């Protein structure tokens, strides 16, 4: 209730990862604030970007879960929903309207559903939904993309890998998100001197871009099992040679982290051969895109995996790693858990609200423990539910924590 808001503003407690980022950053960082209302509740502004396909279904559920978990920890949210991707193209003709950028920049965190769909597939590149997502990442300067892949004991049988290979996998892909071939210039399609069309892109990394993502990765590994594998293609690409050199040099500052290097083709193979050898993986934008999809499959379903994209100052962007799944959109079949877990990452990495985050993670496990499964993670003997029902079960599970704690 806006009227009840007091004017006292207090700084957000930055989570450890965030502090680690800012400590090393040469640029002064903007302290984000949250208002505190008369009841002493913290209030955060969240921009919701439902996007396309199953996006709106999963976002509406994650919103309720955020509200519920927040209320148990004295945290309130004001949500502002803005268009992105195909939804924005239909509405205003561009995939990332200025208003969406400003709302996102002005908020404490951004939660995105998914973008894309058949309808816009043939659009020119600057009018593709995917372009809107890349522009958003660039506008928010979210260079560090954390993509965890954990095989939950409840879902081991959903993996296509043998139980003994999949069981216990718990890895984190730290993907560089605002550089490399995705953004490098020159790029384009032109006609060469023989009159033939040529498409070209540039894989480019400056030293500071490598250093800052490597630091995030070392810090991440330090808080996990202390093992970092840097993935590159240094046997062929100059950008990778520099990558390996910079990462190796930084290792001296993190003597407690065991650093190894692996070529990307080998890493792709090792991920399905023996995924448990990995703890934290750090890699460039395009290798991270590919390897994180591969890692997700070890867990059984891409419908389970959240992600966090962080900058060294402004709001983070949190999104499930799955796409908009137009084939099942609007049919109540989507798995909302990746978005719900992205909301947990938003609380943990974006706002430093670790207790509320834990409530959400526990609630997801609670719903799975009761045997509820969406189609993508269904196996014999479990209860098949739709997107909404899965969301309700997670909410009930958050609720039951109230009773458990009184
Ligand atoms: C991802 C997606 C995006 C990417 C697409 C939609 C632009 O595949 O987030 O992994 O390539 O980064
Ligand atoms: Mg991808």
Describe this structure in words.
The chain is an alpha/beta fold and 406 residues long. It has helices at 16-24, 55-71, 85-92, 98-106, 129-140, 163-166, 207-223, 238-250, 264-273, 285-298, 337-350, 354-369, 387-405, and strands at residues 5-11, 33-37, 42-51, 75-81, 109-114, 144-150, 170-176, 188-191, 197-200, 227-232, 258-263, 280-283, 308-310, 316-318, 372-373, 383-384. Strands 1, 2, 3, 4, 5, 6, 7, 10, 11, 12, 13 and 14 form a 12-stranded mixed beta sheet that branches. Strands 8-9 form a two-stranded antiparallel ribbon. The chain has a two-stranded parallel sheet with strand order 15-16. The radius of gyration is 21 Å and the shape is globular. The structure holds 3-isopropylmalic acid and magnesium ion. 3-isopropylmalic acid binds at residues 130, 133-134, 289, 321. It catalyses: (2R,3S)-3-isopropylmalate + NAD(+) = 4-methyl-2-oxopentanoate + CO2 + NADH.
Class of secondary structure makeup: alpha/beta
Q: What's the average pLDDT?
A: 91
Shape: globular
SSE pattern: EHEEHEHHEHEHEEEHEHEHEHEEHHEEH
Beginning-to-end CA distance, first to last residue: 27 Å
Function: Catalyzes the oxidation of 3-carboxy-2-hydroxy-4-methylpentanoate (3-isopropylmalate) to 3-carboxy-4-methyl-2-oxopentanoate. The product decarboxylates to 4-methyl-2 oxopentanoate.
Keywords: Amino-acid biosynthesis, Branched-chain amino acid biosynthesis, Leucine biosynthesis, Magnesium, Metal-binding, NAD, Oxidoreductase
Catalytic activity: (2R,3S)-3-isopropylmalate + NAD(+) = 4-methyl-2-oxopentanoate + CO2 + NADH
Cofactor: Mn(2+); Mg(2+)
